[in-house]
Structures
1.
Amino acid sequence: MKIAVASGKGGTGKSTVSINLAYLLSKTYKDVCLLDCDVEEPNCHIFLNPCINKSEHVFMPVPEVNDSKCISCQKCAQICEFNALAFVKNFVIVFPELCHGCGGCRLICPAGAITETGREIGTVEAGIGYGFNFIYGKLRIGEAMSPPLIKAVKKEAENFKFQVLDCPPGTSCPVISSIDDADFVILVTEPTPFGLYDLKLAIEVVRKLNLPLGIVINKSGENDGLIENHALSEGIKVLTKIPDDRRIAECYSRGKIILRELPEYRKNFEPLIQITREILSDKLFGVQK
Amino acid sequence: MKELVVISGKGGTGKTSIVAAFSSLAENKVIVDCDVDAADLHLILNPKIELKTEFYSGKSAQIKSEFCTKCKKCIELCKFGAISKDFIIDEIKCEGCGVCYNFCSYHAIKFETKQSGEWYESNTRFGKLIHAKLGAAEENSGKLVTAIRNHARLVASKNKNGLILVDGSPGIGCPVIASISGANQVVIVTEPTLSGIHDLERVYKLTQHFRVPACVCINKYDINFELSLQIEKLCQENKIELLGKVPYSNDFTNAQIKGLSITEYTDNEVTATIKTIWENIYSKLMERKNV
């Protein structure tokens, strides 16, 4: 079962919700894994201080041209939709950072001059922290494309029964790669105009992918109505609220887990466990949502 | 013409609120919102759209079922798992590489350019704003960023604006790279949290990688004095100029709710700090060569 925690806007508290949800789940269930899919700026490891027992470099296939076999037909450069190959002064030049790894150039080359080689895009690490499993990816700096690394993180976690995915902010490819096969999406927002606007964009994305969703209001306070009214009009449930408490912000700043430092907030995370139970029973009994 | 880009690495550090304040302080400029995924600056600047341009980028493939012989070649060749067993291409998974289209023996695949968003040239109380909206679940945000940056340069040179002020996006990936490459100066807005510091270090390395000079501004510095000091030390060690430290303030949210920049909303210690930061960065920027 996969629960994705996403947001649209950055800094709304995705990691806080993900970490505490995984922590609380692991008190009841075995086989819980937290995935940090925000590979551009991963943060969960700061809170978990995990004991890492596996670290692997992730490679993406990119073409390598054997100049002695190349017959200068330029078909490879023509077929590439991403301008990753160019024909200059009778030679093919490869721009690996533009390559999406589709393999079109290798397939079209009539001379068999193109082979695939790997380009490192980052690392995936796996370990254990506070009694649950943890997997995260770290994008190599200067690398533009994160989706292949996000897929590698998800692949590493595929055998865990309970997966909580901390997703990157935004509404484009990195988010889609993270949430596309989730059983449920939790959208974390804050009661500000920016929070509301980006929530609307995030809802649009989740609806486009046809996934069930719920909302968590973080830094909750006097302006909650902003979010609640919109949730009501969209027919989306506000699952829980986490108050705007300076102690929580301090706890976060020091890289501490709320449920360990401020156990009185356990009740604020319980509704998310309830949702997990519901999804689990829906899955068991094959209920279509 | 000088180009200043505000980024943060970590989301939610207050980038857009700072840019809104800079917008109210800077003169003779074009403002650009490069956070095309989740643009928020327009909520403060209240733009009147003057020019709207559809953004076409990337292609997507579609199977013409009347010609399809169900030979499965496309399914085997697609590296992105975008084609289902019943020969339907998932437009979200499709990367637009054209392999299925190029290798289908029966020409049963359509491969067309698609609209993935739109961008606007608008008037605001602070001058021109160039902004964009990426369609939900679309790709090519980097190319859209490049398109609006190019347009902003065009508008700035036509109107003889000396400055382009850019609001960037979080992270270190494609839209961020597209926002900072070739700019004169980057300001990294960070916060004194362990996550903020971690992300600052990564995004600073990115600016070095692309050889764009960077300065740092600490927002909400008083939520953790110890970590603020740690950021100051980090800046000293790496010879990064620290522009200033902005205290935590509810006025940012209050101003946002009123649709104002904090500098319009109030006049206090917080806005005084931001004004000093702006003067610092502006004089720094003027030392740089034109873009």
2.
Amino acid sequence: MRKMMSVLIIVCMLASTAVLFAAGQEEGSKGPVELTYTTWMTKGEDKPWIDAFNAANDDVIVKMDMLEGGKYPELIRTRVLANDMPDVMMLMGNQIQEFSREGYLADITDTSAAKLQSSTPMAADYNSRDGKVYGLNITGGFMGHVWYNKKLFSDLGLSVPETMDEFWAVCEALKAADKDPMLLGGADTWTYKMLRFASWTTFADPAMKATGFGDIGEALYNGADVAEVYRGHAEFIDEMVKKGYLIQASLTTTWPQSSQIFVDGNVGMFPQGPWMATLPEVVAADPDKFEMGVFAMPIENEEGKRYVIATMDRFMGVSSKSDNLDASMDFFNFVTSDESLIGYLEPQGLTTLLDLDYELPQTIIDFKKMVTGEKYTAVPYVFPTPAAWENQESQMPKNIQSGATVEQALTEIKNYYLDGKETIKF
Amino acid sequence: MKQLLRKKDKDYYWALLAILPVLIFFIFFLLYPQIINLRYSITNYDGFSKDFKIIGLSNFARFFKGIDPKGIVSFRNTLTFSFFSLLFGIPLQMVLALTFYNGVKGNAFFKGLFYVPSVISLVIISVAWNNILQYRGLLNRLLEMVELAPFDWLGSPKTAMGCFIFINAWQFTGYGTIIYLAGLSSIPEEILESASMDGAVGLKKYFYITLPLMMHSITIGLFMGLTGSLQMFILPFILTGGGPLNSTITFAMNIYNNAFIMQRFGYAAALSIIFTLFIGVVTIFQMRFTRKREVSY
């Protein structure tokens, strides 16, 4: 009896082990095809795409996975390693390079999206490899927006600064009025990038010129002195921190918290991307406390020149490893049709390099006018630098705000770059 | 004799059959990945490209030669975190265990209260504490209410690690308390009574009678605390990202960063092997130390 019980228990345990293995291997069930789409738009910005496609297709269901933006590259990479790659993905610039190089992206050369992109050489080149197209650049344009609270400025008798002296005066006036001059959602480290975009290029120009390369990433890769490329920006951050203009709360406030604090009316300036223009909290803000305006940082180099970054932000690709490649391509073609792209870009107030005609929010139009005027020169930042570099670029100002000296911060970023350079592949 | 031997063989095979499922699990989910990991540790695999080659022990040399910008600092942070977590955590757990052992009003309620944090996901704990400790968080608001200046608990390199040590001690106090309480409860009353009759009271009784008799619980509690604290990852990953100024980056975080951000998967594999061996050595010494001091009756 005891032996029979033992046999029964052992058989059950073996059977359950076998079932566990089998569960992992289970292939396609009956019913609609299921696709996975991943994005870092955690406020549901991509949901209208998904809903529209699902409504129009009975035989395919797209499920959206929203992953944290700051960790998006490594989260996708772990899924690739685990053989759990999404079918269609929003991607960051360097991911397009990496994924297409390793054969993880499907060829989309013959799609209407690729044809649309072909009229923008910068985007077309970036998304191509060996004559084939592997990704679509969706958003791009100028970066470096410094959003400000028009209502607060008006209450304090302040105007948009046109010079750095005026900028410092605005910061001091806000601080004197017991308002926070500038806030970042620095717990999400990527938000420091927005302040860097607003201020960096002009500072970096001399060091870049020494290499002869016009793209910052390319200049860094080809020998630009890392410390000198970042020095001006580091000194700017140091001054902002020491004078209390970039408030201490920036270090531990998250991005969602920071945007809400900004629209609640106690923060003067908020460097962020163009997506600010149509954020729900901005739209719903109390007009007695908040009205949003935008300006470009009036930082000039010794020659009186000002620079602004032009870059590409969101990309989309289809996994070549998808179990349902045809359905994935159908979804890709659906969301990248002209009509669908406009339906995506316009409500969010996003700019694109694609030849699409739609309305932009007035603030975005104002910023574009500012930086395409005579005062500013656009500098491309599209060279595929590794995610590790980008991570450290945003960490550097955070280190200064945490107490590092400018030299300590520059030494760390320089060592990091030189150490990480060997990991770059093309 | 032959019959006796045959019976012994039969028992052996039945025992083998009984552990077969667990053995399969161990081989496929623990041993095999370790072998694969060992293979990657001697390559320049970036975690992505199919194009990689064997580079010998270069990855191990990278750590021991201090080439990794965050190698030594992450190791030091890990030791600091572990040391202070145990230094504050274990005495606290013992005091609570003694308190519960001696009986206190609402014993069951307080036991549950202290134990609950240890069953909550560390991710949820991290998010909750972030809302308390961030500059505009609950703690600073309370300080401002009593007219004290706010402090950047997570943004200052002087206090960020201290916050983690506190959170870790808070979360696992109940867990350790239960282990030590079980140890106390296993000591026969007669031994403690006779010790009292012989004049052993207070701290003397605790250190010379109680502690040695519950040393087996300390072996377990210390082992769990040591291995858990050395592998700390979630708290710094969510709360500070390893900052400020690398003051909270742990060894486990450095492994993760190298594998998935720096694209040095081979090096991360080497780090994980170094770390496994280190934890193994430390726990061997720990168990030898505590087991020598275990007393049976």
